[in-house]
Structure formats: C-alpha cells, structure tokens
Amino acid sequence: MTQLPLRAQLAAALGRTAATLSRVTGRGDGSVIGGRVGLILEPDLLRRLAADRRLALVSATNGKTTTTRLITSALQELGEVATNAFGANMPAGHVSALSQAKDAPYGVLEVDEKYLPEVLDTTGAAVVCLMNLSRDQMDRAAEIWLLAQKWRRALDGRDTHVIANCDDPLVTWGASTARQVTWVSAKQRWREDSWCCPECGGPLDRKDDDWACRECTFRRPEPTWFLADNAVIDPRGRTWPLDLQLPGRANQANAAIALAAAEAFGLPVERALPRLREVKSVAGRYTTVERDGRVLRLLLAKNPAGWLEAFDVADPALPIILSVNAQGPDGRDTSWLWDVDYRVLRGRPVYVTGERRLDLALRLHVAGVHFQLCETFREAVDAQAPGKIDVIANYTAFQQIRAEFGRAV
Amino acid sequence: MQSESALRLVWIYPDLLSTYGDQGNVLVLEQRARARGIPVETLHVRSADPVPENGDIYLIGGGEDRPQILGAERLRRDGGLQRAIDRGAAMLAVCAGYQLMGTVFGGEEGQPVPGVGLLDISSGRGRHRAVGELAAEVDPELGLPTLTGFENHMGVTKLGPGVKPLSRTLVGTGNGDGTEGCYAGRIVGTYLHGPALARNPALADLLLHWVVGDLAPMDDTWYEHLRNERLGTVLSR
Q1: How do the domains of chain A map onto residue ranges?
Q2: B182: annotated active-site residue
Q3: Given this model, what pLDDT does residue B68 score?
Q4: What percent of chain A has pLDDT over 90?
Q5: Average pLDDT in the A15-25 region?
Q6: Of A47, A314, A395, B136, whose Cβ has the fewest other Cβ atoms within 10 Å?
Q7: Which residues pair with A11 in a beta bridge?
Q8: Contact across the interface for B20 and A202, Cβ inside 8 Å
C-alpha cells in the first residue's frame, strides 16, 4: 500500500487520535474531527491518502449513504474497503475514512453534491456514481441547475468512469461531459425539477422513463443497465431478481447503480448481488426499534423526493409518526413541506411531532389529513397501541429519535 | 372544464419557478376559498404554453437565475398575464417572480435583464445573501396583521412611485431599504417564502376579497398556531 511521507503519516495518526478521543468522550462518532485535525496538519492529506487506491465517489440528492453502503458491501468481495459509512461526506470525513483504513486497496466515498468537483479533483477517483438531483434545503444548498453545471465542468474531458441515472435529465446533463459514462435506467419518481431542458430551457417531453427536449437535441441517452420490477437487467440482457432486505423502490434504484459500479471494478453481478442482499439497515435508516411493545420502523426523508420514496415504503395499514425539525442541516426554511403531497396519508392514523410540528400541522390541515399533535416523540409513541408503527423524520429529527434508542443502526 | 362561477387560480410556470414550496400559496388559496363554499378551478401553466387571460388570481414563485430569465422572456413574449391584469385580475408574485414583475432585474452575472413591467420596481444583486426569518408591519391602508415568512435571496429592490411598500421590516432584509415587498392595484409582490400565504392567511384573504368580495369567517386555528409560534420566536430574539 501507499507509503505516506512522514508529515502525512503524522497528520493521519493525530487525526485518528482525535477521532478516538471524540468517540470515547461521547462527543461524536469522530468521523469529522479526525479528518479536520489531519487536514490542518497536512492540507494535501486527502490527495496523498487517495493515491494508489481505486476509489468510487457517490453523489446525489437522495440515496448517497445507502448506495455508498451497497457498493462497499459489494467491493468487500474483492478486499478491504475504506468508506465514510456514517455520512460525513465532506473532505474531513473522507480523510478520516481513508486514514482509518490505511491499507485498504479500495475506497467508496459518499460525497456532498457541492463538494464533488473538489473531491474528484483531489482524489482522482476512478469511478463516480450519480443518482439524482432534486430540490433540497434551499437556504443552504446550492441551486440544482447550478450544481449540475459544476458537475459538467468537473467531469469534462476526465477519464473517470461515470455511472449515472439517465432517467434523471439533470443528472444526465451533469454527467454527459465525461468521456466514459455507463447509463443506468434507475427510474425517477420525483419529476418536479425536470420539466425543462437543462441544456436550453425548452420543454422536456416525457413518456414513461424516456424524455427528450422539444426544442434542442438533448435527450435521454440509451441505457445499458435497467431497473425493472424488483430486478436489474444487465448489459448482456440477463435479468437478476434483486430481493433486497432494504425496502422500497428507491433502494432498488440504489442497487442498480451499485451493481453497475461493482462491474466497473471488475466484480460481476453474481458476486456483487448476494452482498447487497445482506444489507438490512444503513446508519439507522430502515432499522426497527422497540419500546413497550411498540415496534417502530425508522425512515429518513430530507426533502420532497425523499418523502415520496418514504411513502412508497410506509405500510398504508399502519399508524405513522411524522417528525420535522428545521435546524441547520435540515434547512431552516420549511417551505419544502408544501412540495410534498401528503394526501396519501388521508384516512391513516397520523401523529405529528418535531420542533417544527406546527408547520407540518398546518400543511396536513390544508391537505385534508387528520392528525394528532404531540409535544414529544415519546408522547407520540405512548399514544400508540402495541404493534408496528412507521416513523418518517427529516435529518436532525431522525438523529434525535435514533439517539433515544442508543444511536440505533 | 370551466364553469362561470368558479374562482380561477392560475399558477404561472411551475416548471420554471416553483423551487421553494410555492405550490403552498396555490393550495392555501384553494383551501380558504373552498372553506367559504367558493368552487375553485386551478390551472398550472407550463412555460411552453400560453397564459390564459380569464383567470382571477395569478401566482408566480421563486427559482434560480436561469429559469427566472427564461420566465421573464416568455411572459413578455406571451402577453397573456399583462392582459389579465388589465382586466382586473389579482396576482401574488414571490421572490424571483416578484423581481421579474418589475422593469429590470439582475441576471446570473448581475447583468440587467428586462422584466415584465407590471410593477414599478427595479432589482439588482446585493452583496450578501439575505437568508432567514422575516417579520414586518404591513402598510396600515391594507389592514393586515404583522407579516411573517422566510426570505432567501440576493436581490435589492428599489420601489418606484408607481408602487407602495407592502410592509416595513422589523426583522430581516426584504427590499433592502427597510421595506419588504410592494403592492399596486391588485398586484402584491414579496420576497417571502414560508410559503407567504400559509404564514399570512389574511394576505390570502385580501387577494380573495379583491376578486370575490366579502368573505365569511373560517376556522384559522392551525394558521394562528403557526403564526404565533413563528412571530414569537422571531420577535423575541
């Protein structure tokens, strides 16, 4: 493996120490502080840690953490894999992940959408996976058209092998400057951000998964991988039933991307897929926790497209608890609640909690959804009869609930 | 499917300008009209399609720079909105949609872009992004309670003599000169998301009143809970 220069070795070692201290003192999981310490001592640390490894970067608005986990599981077939499994997806998190697995020949890094150009440039990653782009935390995230443009510039003329979802027009536009792209028809349910051509602004005509601009030549490229009903069709036309433990259509899409990425690393579907099937939950997402006979399944939804996918997973026969916050990582503007179509919850027992429960309450009221307002998550759980319950929460609300159950994974 | 008696809401260019939950303003108007027994028809007009002239209330929302420029170009070329306003229709224009109703606004590189010209305002790019909760006292002539919402923009808007400020800011940036939004005739422009009409149901009722006349009282419990909580949080800082 790479022999790091002394300074970089020291920086990486001190970073690991900081990470350990952070964990043992209960301040965090150490994945950010360790990287920060390392980067202060050796600003070039990420490039040095990435050198001589085969890396995949994973970016999207939704599904980054899960897809990173799926690709990591698959590549473990080939050897040790360094990864930022807990979603610390900026350079400090990447440094931390790579320095904790010094000898791993492979790395799979989840990358914040805004940081992708920088991280790609620094690491020279061999593979980049791009799944979807949609509106997200507008008060702090970059606007998505602009974001896709930055991806275009970053990928332009590069030898990186891009695996991209061609059913998302904005992702397609962002990826299409790369020299080598494997297009995956991974589907896209949320379409409210892609009615206009990213190339010319003209109207996009859409039919099923296909799309084309009415005014210019920009259109959906021909995919070589397809997501079908609970199955993936590979470039040789073979159909692979997925049968994942992770629920929902969005995770089938993540798996399709993961299988294409695995193949880019030389790992065939027959060896990758059994690994994907072993994944049950990802950093608390989809996990089940229990309290006093109430069995709660935790679903994370951070933005309108994510809520659509969470509703797809939630069981219509069960009561549902919704929790919404508006702290920094959630976006402080709750306007996005109005982009979510909550009418699907009509007739279900709905319980509303979280720091911004009143925003959600009015939203549901206007949608004609009956609900019960609860001051705390505990109160919402106590209001349930024993049995199964679905929980959907946005980012910090989800982490608070997870913390109540001992950082459930 | 259009009936003469229904209130006609027209949502302009949701494919370009609806990035910040702007659909909420449409949903709130629908809900508040229906709660008074007024039938509603809502039309979503894509940017490739003509804007009908026979709407009662028009809504246009926020968006990125490029869609804002495209939206302004298409509205100018189309002319339907301008004819509808001449006929006496009401309009709520939010953020990017507010700016483009003026004579000029700032493009991606700060270049001046001609607007639709329905409001006597001109906008440019400020130095800092204004992001956060806003509270403002509404022009007493309109008789509305304190305005609340969330702003997220880099615009600085100058009001000409043809418009009046909608409000004076207590917290937040708004137009950049101590005022927030503007109104003229039956057009209201604002930087506020939240969305604006969910956080300010009296503003929704003002638009409805302009086109349907007196409104019966309705249950505002959840609207008031949210307003009180937001204003309490913002004004106590």
Answers
A1: 45-277, 288-404
A2: no
A3: 94
A4: 79
A5: 72
A6: A47
A7: none
A8: no
DSSP characters over B159-197: E-TTSEEEEEEEES-TTTTSEEEEEETTEEEE--BTTHH
User: Is the Cβ of B226 closer than 8 Å to some Cβ of chain A?
Assistant: yes
pLDDT at A22 over 90: no
Among the four given CATH numbers 3.30.2160.10, 3.30.950.30, 1.20.1270.20, 3.40.1190.10, the one describing domain A45-277: 3.40.1190.10
| Structural domains of chain B sorted by starting position, each given as residue range(s) with its CATH number in brackets | 7-235 (3.40.50.880)
- Average pLDDT of A50-65? 95
Residue A392 binned pLDDT confidence (cut-offs 50, 70, 90): very high
Enter the pTM of the model. 0.90
A339 interfaces chain B, CB cutoff of 8 Å: yes
Q: Is B193 a catalytic residue?
A: yes
Q: What is the mean pLDDT of chain A?
A: 92
Intervals of chain B under pLDDT 70: 1-4, 237
CA of B200 vs chain A CAs: smallest distance (Å): 12
Whether A301 has a pLDDT exceeding 50, the answer reads yes
B chain contacts of residue A192, beta-carbon cutoff 8 Å: 14, 18
A202 to chain B nearest CA, in Å? Answer: 7
Identify the helix (H) or strand (E) that includes residue B72. helix B65-78
Residue B23 CA, distance from chain mean position? 11
Contact B222 A358 (CB under 8 A): yes
Residue A30 has pLDDT above 90, yes or no: no
From residue B220, alpha-carbon distances to A335, B203, B230 in Å are: 19, 13, 15
Q: Which of B128, B193, B209, B225 is catalytic?
A: B193
Q: Hey, are the CB atoms on B46 and A139 less than 8 Å from each other? A: no
Fold of A288-404: Protein-Tyrosine Phosphatase; Chain A (3.90.190)
pLDDT confidence of residue B1: 41
Say if residues A129 and A67 touch (Cβ distance below 8 Å): yes
